[in-house]
Amino acid sequence: ESIEKGGFEHFMLKEIYEQPRSILDNMRGRMVAEKDHLMMGGIREFENKFVNADRIIIVACGTSWHAGLVAEYLIEDLARIPVEVEYASEFRYRNPIVNERDIVIAISQSGETADTLAALELAKSKGATIFGICNVVGSSIARATDAGAYTHAGPEIGVASTKAFTAQVTVLTLIAMIIGSKRGTLENSKLRQLMVEMENIPAKVEECLKLDAQIQQIAAVFKDVTNFLYLGRGYNFPVALEGALKLKEISYIHAEGYPAAEMKHGPIALIDAQMPVVVIATKDSSYEKVVSNIQEVRARKGQVIAIVTQGDQVIPSMADYVIEIPETSEQLVPLLSVIPLQLLSYHIAVLRGCNVDQPRNLAKSVTVE
Ligand code: G6P
């Protein structure tokens, strides 16, 4: 087993460190910016269906559902097709309205999650086209779909999903770009810029991994707290949910992810000097608003751990801890901002003596409902 871990203490850490590679593997053959090449085998056959779809419904569970939420922002932003993201377990039991002009995307690392499989079978029976995004080749969900794309992240052993998430987001980003360009909703100049930025992502993820030692120190400060709040807006809202889920899963600390603006409708009541608040505050269209959210937390003595864009001049004077990540296009930020959150949960769990790779009560793939 220690050989399989490749010198890392846990599979989870190894998998976190594999992300520059797994993201690159997902782009390989699908996108070459300088050649203007952007293509995904799985979509080609269904390109017209995607281009003409009335709506895209995404079904998934857990971390894969968070990747689906990122895709909602991406596809609506770049391809202007309405997207609904559903928990597979809710979708399948609520007599959903689905028809032949809908595309249902099922996202699943294992390809075996019972609820996701049942949700796609239901959508299929109502005539929708089913597209799968799976990591495990030949898995049940991969086999049950009309077409799909693999995430090529390699085997993920740690129960808490890390590299599968960024691989899913990478594939979904490419899909949004492909559909957007075919539909003419994504201008060529913007498409080119995104392609170039995408190619820079693996190196930027590598830079994020260099934050490891700093994040370990922050983890040591907060390892004994009982609650955590994670805030983000726009593309970083799903990342806040994912950061909170990672912490809950492996450290057993209660954590909640929230859209930063919704904080005032509830979670703000919880904020006091004992409450660490992770705020994802990268330079994007909601930056100013997030800065005000940080001030609201500060005013109630909450401890702010801010994830910011390198060179930010404003937030360091407000936040207790600042983690700087490289700049990128707003649409691609989740691929970077999630990395420090994965590392934070990992280090907190290790410092608390938790079984990081096999947390209590959780399974890598849930094949029962
Ligand atoms: C389980 C795992 C999670 C995973 C979820 C969905 O709960 O512990 O890490 O996100 O299932 O799994 P899937 O294989 O469908 O992505």
From TrEMBL:
Span of domain SIS: 46-185, 218-359
Catalytic activity: D-fructose 6-phosphate + L-glutamine = D-glucosamine 6-phosphate + L-glutamate
GO biological process, one term: carbohydrate metabolic process
Entry annotated with the keyword Cytoplasm: yes
UniProt entry keywords in alphabetical sequence: Aminotransferase, Cytoplasm, Glutamine amidotransferase, Repeat, Transferase
Gene Ontology CC terms, in alphabetical order: cytosol
Subcellular location: Cytoplasm
Gene Ontology MF terms in the entry: carbohydrate derivative binding; glutamine-fructose-6-phosphate transaminase (isomerizing) activity
Active site: 364
Keyword Coiled coil in record: no
Enzyme class: transferase
EC number annotated for this UniProt entry: 2.6.1.16
UniProt subunit comment: Homodimer.
Function: Catalyzes the first step in hexosamine metabolism, converting fructose-6P into glucosamine-6P using glutamine as a nitrogen source.
Protein name (database record): Glutamine--fructose-6-phosphate aminotransferase [isomerizing]
Species annotation: Pontibacter arcticus
Lineage of the species this protein comes from: Bacteria, Pseudomonadati, Bacteroidota, Cytophagia, Cytophagales
Underlying gene: glmS
